[in-house]
Each structure stands twice: as C-alpha cells, then as structure tokens.
Amino acid sequence: MTNDTYSQPQLNQLAGDIKQWAQELGFQQCGVTDVDLGHHEDALKDWLSKGYHGSMNYMADHGNKRSRPAELLPGALRVISVRMDYWPEQKGKAQARLEQDQSAYVSRYAVGRDYHKLMRKRLAQLGKRIQEEIAESAYRVFVDSAPVLERALAQKAGLGWIGKNTMLINPKAGSYFFLGELFTDLPLPIDAPYPKYHCGSCSACLDLCPTKAFVAPHILDARRCISYLTIELKGDIPEELRPMMGNRIFGCDDCQMVCPWNKFSRLTGEKDFSPRHRLDSAELLELFEWTEEQFLNNTEGSAIRRTGHESWLRNIAVALGNAPTTPTIIAALKGKLSHPSVIVQEHVRWALARHGEPLAETTERQETDKSSVR
Questions:
Q1: CB neighbours of 162 closer than 8 A, spacing ≥ 6?
Q2: Which of 53, 58, 314, 330 is the most exposed place for a label (fewest CB within 10 A)?
Q3: Average pLDDT for 91-98
Q4: Where is the active site (predicted)?
C-alpha cells in the first residue's frame, strides 16, 4: 500500500504506532508537526543580522533551509520530533564541581558517548519501521547534523515551550534532553503545539549567566556564551570574558542548572551517556597533561573531540588562570610555554600573568602585535 492510499483512520493508527515505537527505542517523548516555520524564519534572520552567531558562519550559509524542511527532504509534509533524557548524575553534583575551582567542568551532555550517533541510529530504525508499513514513504533523519530549527519544531510538536534561555523546557522533564527529528512525506495527523509559556516573571537564567550572554529573554548573543567560546570559537578567547569562564572547559550548564523546572528532570537510563574517562570529576591539571594522542583516544566517540586538542588546552589554560595560585599549577602552565600552538602559548601566558607570573614573552608578543597594527 502506498502513502497516498492510506485512509485517515489508518494514518491516525500509524501515528500512534510511531509514538509507541519511539518509546520502545528509548525516546521519552514523540510528537508530530507540520513544516510551517514562517514566524521562526523571521526571528532567525533578525538574529543573524545582528551578528549574534559570531563565527558560526554555517548558521547563515544555508539560506532558508533551516526554516523550510521541504528543502531538506523534497515533499516533506510532517516532522516527527523526539527527545531523549541525558542527565547522568544525582542533582547537586554538577554544581558542586563548579564550586571546586581546581576541578574541570564539562557540560553534562558531553561526558558520555556522542549523542548524535546514538540518536541517529535510533531514528533511522524508526524510519525503517515506518517504511515496513508504507514501503514507498520517504524519510530523512536529523540530530543536530543539518540546518534544522529543532526547538521550534519540538515546540510545535507539543514537546514543551522555548524558555527565556532559548532551551526547550518540558514541565515534567525540565530541559536536560536531546532533540532529534525525522522528516517524512506522510500526511500524518499533527499534535497540538505546546499551549502555554511557563517561565513567567522568572529571570534566573538571564541573571546568573556568567558572561551575561543574554541580550534579552529568548535572545542569546553566542559571542559571549561559554559554550560558544569553548567549543565553536577557534583562536583567542576575548580576554575580558576569560575570568568569567571559571573552570568550565567544554560547554556550560549554568542557565539550565538554575532553571526551577529542572527539579523535574530525570536521570538518563542510557548507559552510553554515563561519564567516561572521569570527565565528570577530573582535575584540571590531569586533563591539561593529555597529549594529543591521549586526547584523541579518550574522546573517541565523544562530542568533545569536535573542539580539538589545541582548543582543549586553550580552555584548560584559561581555567587554570582562574584557579587558586599553587606551585603545581604554575609549573604545569610553564611546561606548556613551549607548545607549538601560538594560541595555547598566548592563553598560558595570560594564565601565568593572572598568578602574578608576567613573562618577558608576554611583553614581547604584545609589542609585536602593536607593531603589526602600526
């Protein structure tokens, strides 16, 4: 039977089956929406026009594809949106690590296996299951892997509302979950968009952002966001932002940890999201000693590998500059002064200066930079 010969009752039954299959595949929620994202398209264009995307040129490189699903899957009529919980530890442990300034803080979504591969595989299984029912149907799977407005689609599919911190929030699960999408050409019945906005007058996420990255509710200037600075940005981190980064070396969870709705979040049941290589509890000095080979080995199958060893050392150098002064920290920093990367060297020198160890090399580089400007 082809996709255009299904009756509406049969499509209704299929939609229910899809949600059941999604649950069996480990997704905590599944919803269906149409492909109209006109309002969100205008908001994205305005955000890009202000330069809030920083060096993430890929955000602007795909024209209107982010807001027009049919340009990614010709004939797309519906988007199946799913979410999967990822928080790996008891509440309070992450905050405690942030307060231990010689410990490394890695955003909790990244301490385990790379979610992209896991969720893509599950969504592909869901797509194949649908094709077993309707052989001639077409689908395409996305997990943060193409220009897709995933939070807008999830809100339209009834999975939650978009909070002031730009995260999707579910009243029964908070915001510690991944999103994924399956585009389909099937005219499935759609779910109602999430009907309410429950942030109210709360501004905790905006007020407690370490770098004050929120221009206004729902508007993030990525150029000041610690996740952007530690993951997306290549090159030098702006000096004025470095002291605000604390011990965060990959990503940031602050605007979520302070959100009252995350008291309803649940621990993940996925073993693959459990911490690996002590990334939830390692000390800064321990990670600073990883060679490039160790970094590549220890981040195999991890979202962290994306940042690269150079940026990894850069980020840790900043964190060590924010840590209390100890002979061990100073010795470790000095040991990286000869690192082949100019970027690593610069951040190491900055960190040493924070500990009262201004070096001649720092002055020499500053003078060279000034000369080049002239």
A1: 151, 152, 155, 168, 169, 218
A2: 58
A3: 90
A4: 144
Phi and psi angles of residue 209, each rounded to the nearest 5 degrees, phi first: -60, 120
Q: Is 144 annotated as a binding residue?
A: yes
Mean pLDDT of the chain: 92
Residue 38 confidence (pLDDT): 82
30 labeled part of a ligand binding site: no
Please enumerate in sequence order all residues whose Cβ is within 8 A of that of 58, keeping only pairs 6 or more positions apart, or say none: 147
Q: Select which of 36, 101, 114, 144 is catalytic.
A: 144
- Tell me if 49 is assigned to a ligand binding site: no
pTM: 0.91
Q: What is the rounded CA–CA span in Å between residue 144 and residue 115?
A: 10
| Token reading at 238 | 């702006």
Mean pLDDT of 244-258: 98
* 330 has a pLDDT exceeding 60: yes
Residues with Cβ within 8 Å of residue 150, at least 6 apart in sequence = 81, 142, 144, 179, 180, 181
For the segment 219-223, the average pLDDT, to the nearest whole number, is 97
